[in-house]
UniProtKB/TrEMBL annotation:
SUPFAM superfamilies with a match to the protein in the record: MFS general substrate transporter
PROSITE patterns listed in its UniProt record: MFS
Organism: Lentinula boryana
Presence of the UniProt keyword Nuclease in the record: no
PANTHER family: MAJOR FACILITATOR SUPERFAMILY (MFS) PROFILE DOMAIN-CONTAINING PROTEIN, MAJOR FACILITATOR SUPERFAMILY DOMAIN-CONTAINING PROTEIN 10
Regions that span the bilayer: 67-87, 107-127, 139-157, 163-184, 196-215, 247-269, 326-347, 359-378, 390-412, 442-464, 485-507, 513-534
Domain Major facilitator superfamily (MFS) profile: 68-538
Pfam name, any one: MFS_1
Keyword Signal on entry: no
Lipid bilayer topology: Multi-pass membrane protein
Full protein name: Major facilitator superfamily domain-containing protein
Localization in the cell: Membrane
Domain of life according to the entry: Eukaryota
Alphabetical list of InterPro entries matching this protein: MFS (IPR011701), MFS_dom (IPR020846), MFS_trans_sf (IPR036259), Tet-R_TetA/multi-R_MdtG-like (IPR001958)
Amino acid sequence: MNSAAARGLASIESVSPPATERTPLLQQCVVPSSPESVLDLSSPSLEAQKNLLDLKSRRETSPLPQAQLITLCLVRIVVPISFTQIFPYINEFIEFLGVTDSSQIGFFSGFVESSFAISQLLFIYHWARLSDRFGRRPIIIIGTLGVAVMTMVFGLANSIPELIVYRCLAGFFGATASVIHTVLGEITDSTNQAAAFPLYGITGPVGSIIGPLIGGSLSNPAQKFSQITDTPRFLTRLVLFLQRHPYFLPGLVSGIISLLGVALAYFCLDESLPSRRRPITQNGVEPHANSASESELGDDPSFPKLPSARTLLSVPIIRALSLSGFALEMNGTSFVVLFVLFCYTPIEQGGLAFPPSVIGYALAFTGLVAGLTQLFFMPIFLRRFEAAKIYSVCMAVWPLVFLVLPCLNIIARCGSNYGLDGADGLDRVSGELAQLGNHTKAILWVGVFVALTLSRVGGIAYPASMILIKNNVPCPSYLGSTNGLVQWFMCLSRCVSAAFASSAFAFSAKYNILGGHFWAVLHALIAVGGWWLARSISLSSKSTLSS
């Protein structure tokens, strides 16, 4: 029995009159009008006492800070938009700057894309420590403003070194994203986190959809709308400017969205660091008074005020969360890379030979499943089960995700070589899926649906990880540093996972190891290691349920 229930029973016993021969066995229970009222219960029924205590617990649920949560979500979406908006046009941009060799274009585009993540890796923990000292709000405002400026000037670059510098600076300021995670943990507690964290979790997928849409639709506007001949004179200079800088417009729009995030953070976001929180009351109640940083955690005097990474890693559960976060990010990043390669590769080389449009539809479906899962299923899971158990189950799903993909190639080979449904198989020249029989295609799409759905079930581990960090931090003042440390491990994983996964796929296909499917077995074994780390977390984690 937890402390709240013990106090409730003590209050019940203190006000209950002593039982006599005339005391009725089933006396009516009087429910107080407010949860602070003394509970009047003279019945010895344990079931009635339990029901009344449950009623009191439900009434004491902390209200969700809706304004702060919406502000956080809108500010959080800035980084994925700025990160992904360059993907549709970066190859054309590099060619526009004078690089004509196709192999060199691929090299430089990959370097420019990865420089953002590398810069985040170098500075994410330092930003988190600064937020523990100077507060969350100023760090978030500075970071979002920096992302806005660097995103807008990116399209003005006249050389590849300028692209890299602007991209690195954007990653430097974008490393403040972990501080936003910290604020979410400080404005919620165990009674309302089941509603807050899933809503916050969909901002990443949504931003990753909006960014490429902006980049693809607004890049090189002068060429796309060249058929418009009747241009007003006052727009002539603008058209000439966009011809000299054809990739400025998508960065400008993304930067304006970031500036809106700066305005929201400045005017609407409250400081959540306990030592710097303003004592402003609303309706007689101090804001966020029930946050974990005050009511659920206690400062440990045995730890220093500003911990180092070594100090945090000396805590077993923080170390386990950091390492399993590395494995989780490797699972998620590697799956996206491997899924695209697997779908694009010809069937005889171990893939599915999907055209790019079909791959795009499949990835869009993945984003839809992720959003629906976060909104509708995650809150139910968090209210009914411990976050550590959810995290462990989701990590256990990832080995299955990787092992399902080779099975799809086997099905495609059977349909291609032996002509299921009377089809002649896949056309080796055109590489079109349409040459497979209807029966084979149906089975393949069911398999793709299963693989993508399982990957989104495994993705539930991301918000569960955030909740576990919040509930297992050694003391409240460490929440920012701990979030930064775990995000550092995830960022490190993002930097190496894509190259590792693509290299493993190429190695497997070149030497035909395990029929070209060695990459799937290798990543399944890595995912098993992540699941083993997640099991150790479930054994030592604090409870995340509200009652």
